[in-house]
Amino acid sequence: MNANDDFSILNVSTTDIPEGERVPMLREFYRCGVVKAEIDAKEGKPFEARFTSHALPEAQLMIGTLFGARLIRTKQLIVDGDDSLALIVNRSGTIGISARGRDLLLQPGDAALTSAEDVMTLERLSPGDCLSLRVPRRVLAPMIVDVDDAVMQLSPEGAAGVGLLVDYAAALVREEALAIPALRRLAVRHLHDLLALVLDPADEALEIAGRRGVKAARLRKAKVLIANNCWRQDLSVTTVAQELGVTPRYLQRLFETDGKTFSSFLIEQRLKRAHRMLREPEFAERPVSSIAYDVGFGDLSYFNRSFRRAYGATPSDVRSGTAE
């Protein structure tokens, strides 16, 4: 567990715990945790719990799985004053949720909003994992028309904002961005914006979220696409914009607000890849011209000029180890 004043990480896993101790351990976690629930384990069925909880200012982000048991929030476990809302996004497998007289079946990519004020049952029906984002009601109330109307409404796979929210949240966790206080505060605002977009994809919500959360999520996704495909010589602002479902000009403006251009970021990623290849023994016999082509450059002279400008040394200097 890692914690400071407004941030903590808690990892829960039954992997190394004897089978007979797993359910009691998890019952204690949910009895004392922020989210209170009973654990109803299926006798004779395999039981597994594996998730990470990130407690943030005005948000709790959880990613992982619980299989072989039901989570039950009874009337007795509803905490006075806790009116928080949690969006549950099923990433794989199947989840069943029952609350407010409704039964929802979440397939991969589906999402649903739940309320801490409701009696609820949640059960993973087939192996898989999910993401949940829990926020205070007061955060969402000013951002969407009727937040209570959104509770226990199914947001199917492909619904506005769901994919962006999942990609953005997963990237924050993967890159450990939440450990940096300034980034953490910004990330929480973005998560709030993206959640509002999922729950109310109307023009007003799009306008609110578009100012921060959606733009941040799209820019991050664009950068990941470029970094993973920078070697392609046909990669362009047009092809990446098509992948994101936006116009090339919109994508260019996203990069401009980040202090770069699309082209400069693409060149930077290609040069980084070339720099790594020049230092790796497995590419020691490959000519510099071949490496330049492999990372996406079609002009060797331009590659050499760009490389020297970026690293203050020639590709040959880097390969030989004479560069500082």
UniProtKB/TrEMBL annotation:
The keyword Cell cycle does not apply. Keywords: DNA-binding, Transcription, Transcription regulation. It comes from the Bacteria. SMART domains: HTH_ARAC. GO terms for molecular function: DNA-binding transcription factor activity; sequence-specific DNA binding. InterPro entries: AraC-bd_2, AraC_XylS_family_regulators, Homeodomain-like_sf, HTH_AraC, HTH_AraC-typ_CS, Tscrpt_reg_AraC-type_HTH. Residues 220-321 form the HTH araC/xylS-type domain. PANTHER family: ARAC SUBFAMILY, HTH-TYPE TRANSCRIPTIONAL ACTIVATOR RHAS-RELATED. This is AraC family transcriptional regulator. It comes from Bradyrhizobium rifense. The lineage of its organism: Bacteria, Pseudomonadati, Pseudomonadota, Alphaproteobacteria, Hyphomicrobiales.
